[in-house]
């Protein structure tokens, strides 16, 4: 059944609002509390305690239906408000999560940039080191070639000195005359 407040109960029973309130306080009329803490009375309880107004008996059904419609619309309104509140909370949570993800993305980008800069710097250092190593290797090769050339020249000079056919030693040798004759120098 529909539940009504003290003012509406007074209208339905053709009693004053204070009479309805006294009846509730004394326990003659039972009531419930609505979500807002207001006392509401079931229409059937009003009929039991005071009887409903005779002049609106035909209109009483319409009034009850109106009260039911109002109660139904109030319940639906509260349901929609709760749904809106829940959706707002979900939206706020999603926005917070998006902000967190953006902050993490920015942090990862900064870290990747730092790694890239470090990597580029390391690459540059590696290239410079490779160039220095090539220069050292080239200088080392040139020194070896120079030393090999000097050794070869020293050997050649020693061999030339030991050569029997060379200059003054060849003349002092016993075979010097023979060589001159073979060559046709005599």
What does this protein look like?
- The chain has 6 helices and 3 strands.
- By secondary structure, the protein is mainly alpha-helical.
- It has a domain at 3-76: Multidrug-efflux Transporter Regulator, Chain: A, Domain 2.
- The protein has a 3-stranded antiparallel β-sheet.
- β2 and β3 form a beta hairpin.
- α1 crosses α2.
- The longest helix is centred in the middle third of the chain and has 106 residues, at 57-162.
- The relative contact order is 0.05.
CATH class category name of one domain: Mainly Alpha
CATH topology-level name of one domain: Multidrug-efflux Transporter Regulator, Chain: A, Domain 2
- SSE ordering: EHHEEHHHH
Quickly give the CATH architecture of one domain: Orthogonal Bundle
> How do the strands of the widest beta sheet line up side by side?
1-3-2
Number of helix segments? 6
Report the portion of residues in β strands: under 5%
Shape: rod-shaped
Radius of gyration, taken over Cα atoms and rounded to an integer in Å: 60 Å
Mean pLDDT: 83
Secondary-structure class:
mainly alpha
Total beta-strand segments: 3
The N- and C-terminal alpha carbons lie at a distance of 159 Å
Major sheet summary line: 3 strands, antiparallel
Brief descriptors of the model:
single chain, 186 residues, mainly alpha, Multidrug-efflux Transporter Regulator, Chain: A, Domain 2, three-stranded antiparallel sheet, 3 strands, 4% strand
């Amino acid at each position: 059944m529909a539940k009504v407040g003290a003012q509406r109960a007074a209208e339905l029973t053709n009693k004053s609002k204070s009479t309805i309130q006294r009846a509730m306080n004394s326990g003659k009329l039972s009531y419930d509390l609505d979500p807002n803490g207001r006392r509401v009375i079931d229409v059937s309880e009003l009929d039991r305690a005071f009887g409903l107004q005779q002049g609106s008996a035909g209109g009483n059904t319409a009034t009850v239906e109106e009260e039911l419609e109002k109660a139904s619309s109030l319940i639906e309104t509260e349901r929609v408000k709760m749904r809106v509140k829940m959706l707002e909370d979900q939206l706020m949570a999603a926005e917070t999560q998006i902000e967190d993800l953006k902050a993490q993305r920015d942090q990862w980008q900064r870290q990747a940039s730092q790694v890239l800069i470090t990597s580029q710097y390391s690459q540059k250092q590696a290239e410079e080191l490779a160039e220095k190593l090539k220069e050292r290797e080239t200088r080392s090769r040139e020194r070896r070639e120079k030393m090999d050339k000097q050794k070869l020249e020293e050997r050649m000079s020693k061999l030339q000195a030991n050569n029997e056919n060379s200059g003054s030693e060849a003349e002092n040798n016993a075979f010097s005359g023979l060589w001159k004759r073979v060559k046709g120098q005599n």
